[in-house]
Amino acid sequence: MRDSDPATALNTAPVLRKKGTGVRTWLMLDSTGQNQVLEAGKYSIMRRTGLPARDLRVLDPFLSYPSTVLGRERAIVINLEHIKAIIMAKEVLVLNSEDPFVKPFVQELERRILCYLQATKTQDDGEEDSKQSELVRPEKLLEDFFEDKGSMAERKQGFKNQDGSKVLPFEFVALEACLEAACSILENEANTLELEAHPALDKLTSHISTLNLERVRQIKSRIVATTGRVQRVRDELEHLLDDDGDMAEMYLTNKLFQRHLEPSSTSSTNEGDESDYEDAGVDDRMVPSEILLEAHGDNGSHGTYANSNIRDFNVGELEMLLEAYFVQTDGTLNKLSTVRGRGTRTDPLYLNS
Fold first, then answer.
1. Computed from CA positions of residues 100, 97, 173, 244, in that sequence, does the dihedral angle turn out positive or negative?
2. Model pLDDT for residues 117-168, shown as the tens digit of each residue
3. CA pair distance 22, 27, nearest whole angstrom
4. Whole-angstrom Cα distance, residue 213 to residue 22?
């Protein structure tokens, strides 16, 4: 922030310290299977993702935010347990990728991206072979041009796995990896607590002692804390499932294609956008061209066009994905409730401690 007071302006040390505090390390994984470590400040990430500062605060490790999944014009913000990430149509930015709790998630995300890449590449190769085998006519070239522009998004959404199942768009592949990681760690913690709780309660039932009572109290404290974490994830999933508009906002690939099909020209070179990537320490050769074209998604007619059409998206596949993890967290919550209920019935001190 500029200050017109000369006396204040002379004191530059606090400004310099403030400028450096926003630089953080991100791991970028894109839809081509490429990984890159980025050192980027808050404003570089805002330009890259189109997110406002208030959404980035959700990922701030120094602030305590509840479990959050935010769908925005060009990105999905994820804050679930140890997973803090920003998902875009063609890439994912992950914080704390070297954290021991995050590393398994990164490895699983890489595996899923490779599966996605293989599925889409296989179908693309098949379509290319089919086109080359056809007789090329002038009118056919025109038909293909308009058909390809109009159906590109549908074809991308229609990829199939080898087993015939539909390939999710890239952003949902990444989203599912985030949900799987968060829900699995909560379920594993609940299973561990269940295994510890039953023997401890049995001991307390057969022999009431200070040691046994303290052991049960410690387990109860962990159950209460874990229950709260599971409840927050479940509530966030329920909130998304209750709002078709929020789910539609998360169809980033569809919105990306809509922006590219805009009548306004996107062929000019955007020097300002390239400088944004340079400021973030990003080699633009490593960034898919679609992302470079996204730069105007939140300005002018692009954002308006996308927002006016998101209500037309069929959110069925996302709803099924979210519903699966909602059911999983609901089951985990019931398991914790059952264990806690048994403790309540076993000893009044367990309930009142």
1. positive
2. 998 876 555 555 554 444 444 444 334 444 444 443 444 444 455 455 578 9
3. 16
4. 47
Q: Beta-carbon neighbour count of residue 142 at 10 Å?
A: 10
Amino acid (1-letter code) at residue 75: A
Nearest to 213 by CA among 203, 222, 223, 221: 203
Query: Which tens digits make up the pLDDT trace of 46-91?
Result: 999 999 999 999 999 888 888 999 999 999 999 999 999 999 999 9
CA distance 339 to 297: 49
The token pair that represents 281 in the structure block: 């320490």
The partner residues of 78 in beta bridges, in order of sequence, read 69, 85
Exposure string for 195-220, b = 16+ CB within 10 A, e = fewer: ebbeebbebbeeeeeeebbebbeebb
Query: Residues 235, 236, 240, 246: what is their CA dihedral angle, to the nearest 10 degrees?
Result: 140
Helix axes 170-206, 210-241, angle to 10 degrees: 150
Alpha-carbon span 305 to 300, nearest angstrom: 9
Note if the pTM is more than 0.85: no
Angle, alpha carbons 177-229-321 (nearest 5°) = 35
